[in-house]
Amino acid sequence: MSGLYIRKFIDRLQQAELKGQKDFVCPVADAKNLHNDITRLLLDLEAVKQATEQPDKTVTVELEGGSF
After folding, report:
1. Mean pLDDT, to the nearest integer, of 60-68?
2. For labelling, which of 26, 32, 34, 60 has a CA lying 20 to 30 Å from the CA of 1?
3. What is the CA radius of gyration of the chain?
4. How far is CA 28 from CA 31, 32, 33, 34, 42, in A?
5. Residue 61 burial by CB count (10 A; 0-12/13-18/19+): exposed, middle or buried?
6. What's the CA gap between 60 and 63, in Å, rounded?
7. Is residue 63 domain-resident?
8. Is 30 part of any domain?
9. In which element (H, E) is residue 11 found?
10. Which one has a higher pLDDT value, 19 or 64?
11. How far apart are CA 10 and CA 12, in angstroms?
């Protein structure tokens, strides 16, 4: 995952702050690309979370004394 549009958004927002702009306008195409990057990031995060979760495993140990 590249996150190109997330970085682009952050850079543009920082530039606007440095210039003292009170408003930030984002073209619809950039907003859609940002949405896609965020969605991919969240899906990847969920996949990693599910891959690392281990369900509680119950281990049953049976001991026999035999003829002891």
Report:
1. 80
2. 26
3. 25
4. 5, 6, 9, 10, 21
5. exposed
6. 10
7. no
8. yes
9. helix 4-18
10. 19
11. 6
pLDDT in tens, 27-57: 999 999 999 999 999 999 999 998 887 677 7
CA quadruple 14, 20, 23, 28: dihedral sign: negative
Cα separation, 20 vs 2, in Å, equals: 29
**Tally of domains in the chain:** 1
Residues in Cβ contact with 67 at an 8 Å cutoff, skipping those fewer than 6 apart? none
Element at 45 (helix H, strand E)? helix 28-52
- The answer to whether residue 57 is domain-embedded is no
Backbone angles phi, psi at 49, to 5 degrees: -60, -45
Domain that residue 33 falls in: 4-52
